[in-house]
Design a protein that fits this description.
InterPro entries: DUF8021 (IPR058334). By secondary structure, the chain is an alpha+beta fold. It contains five helices and twelve strands. The structure holds 2-acetamido-2-deoxy-beta-D-glucopyranose (NAG) (7 copies).
Length: about 280
């Protein structure tokens, strides 16, 4: 009796582990995050931040979460959208603030400990005037014209298909033979500048070619099958013309439809003003 009882324990624990990282938990955490940022208060997050080993970065640099994070600044959020990856136990949230006094576009990734129900790592790309193609009004405007509604269950792409679509987009930079699966109306929103501004039904994601030869030093994924999306955090050397070796903290969010990339949203931080360009357009 004793033996079989003991033998059952690890199994039960394993089952609980897998079940714990649910979309419900992840939704609760992103909702808390959005509330915290809008209030400029850590209170909604405090109960769910891991007590030990919690890591917080802004633009890939460690920032004092409790003393100096952007979360301490209340913001009127004009838009927020969160993505939940119950398999990898991660989330991604897009925030837009058009307040002319202090506009922001923020992309935040959270890594969650599903057992404890706590956030163990938060990484934000915090963009404002001076960052790549920055225009919060434009980000809001074009974003609102796109369809990011949940994909009906029978039309959902698998995780592998979603990931492959995002990966192909980066792979082609170093391997020109890569076939990037672009939808015939693929459009890309960068900082607030929209490739498809002139023609919403045209394909403009490969406009002007890709940044061939650029090798990103890392890729980190959040995959949400319900929203047909994959977000990739990466470092983007060469983006900042004023600091070409700087792997600019970057997020590429892909909306994928039947394996084809429909929309791309980028959020990229510059070390030098406007990444060394003299305008907020991306050419
Ligand atoms: C998150 O879950 C806790 C515990 O169930 C609940 O008290 C809280 O209201 C939830 N918060 C949000 C923002 O959903
Ligand atoms: C988390 O932060 C601690 C110190 O604050 C550091 O030692 C550790 O390397 C960080 N871990 C990761 C995964 O960045
Ligand atoms: C997750 O939380 C559990 C329970 O608090 C802890 O034992 C474990 O080390 C944590 N895992 C990570 C990866 O932080
Ligand atoms: C920002 O985007 C909006 C909407 O597309 C546009 O009307 C405005 O001119 C843009 N601002 C700048 C500075 O490019
Ligand atoms: C480049 O991409 C092509 C097409 O996907 C593939 O067959 C080839 O193996 C790739 N080459 C390298 C070096 O990865
Ligand atoms: C918009 O793009 C579609 C597809 O490329 C093309 O057929 C159409 O002529 C374009 N319309 C305009 C006004 O450029
Ligand atoms: C930006 O403007 C500065 C000062 O006018 C100029 O020196 C620089 O070459 C310009 N950079 C680009 C990329 O046009």
């Amino acid at each position: 009796m004793r033996l079989s009882l003991l033998a059952c324990l690890p199994l039960a624990a394993t089952g609980a582990l897998a079940a714990d990282c649910s979309r419900e938990l992840l939704r609760n955490l992103t909702a808390r995050y959005v509330t915290a940022q809008s209030q400029g208060s850590l209170t909604p997050l405090s109960p769910v931040v891991a007590r030990w080993g919690f890591n917080y970065t802004e633009n890939q640099e460690a920032v004092d979460f409790r003393g100096a994070s952007v979360l301490l600044r209340p913001m009127r959020l004009d838009h927020h959208r969160s993505f939940h990856d119950a398999v990898a136990c991660r989330t991604f949230t897009e925030l837009i603030v058009t307040d002319p006094a202090a506009p922001y576009v923020i992309g935040t990734r959270m890594a969650v400990n599903g057992t404890a129900g706590t956030i163990r790592k938060m990484e934000s790309i915090v963009t404002k005037p001076g960052d790549w193609a920055f225009n919060a009004t434009g980000y809001l405007y074009w974003n609102a014209r796109e369809d990011w509604s949940p994909v009906p269950p029978e039309k959902r792409d698998t995780r592998a298909v979603l990931k492959a679509a995002g990966d192909a987009y980066f792979d082609v930079w170093t391997n020109r033979s890569t076939v990037v699966p672009l939808d015939s109306a693929c459009g890309r929103l960068e900082g607030g500048s929209y490739t498809n501004a002139g023609n919403f039904s045209g394909e403009t994601c490969d406009l002007g070619g890709y940044p061939y030869g650029i090798r990103v030093p890392y890729r980190e994924y959040v995959i949400d099958e319900e929203l047909g999306a994959v977000d990739i955090f990466d470092g983007f050397p060469g983006l900042d013309r004023g600091a070409p070796d700087y792997p600019a903290p970057d997020s590429h969010l892909f909306r994928v439809n039947q394996g084809k990339i429909r929309f791309i949203h980028t959020v990229s931080h510059c070390k030098t003003w406007n990444c060394g360009l003299n305008s907020t357009t991306f050419k």
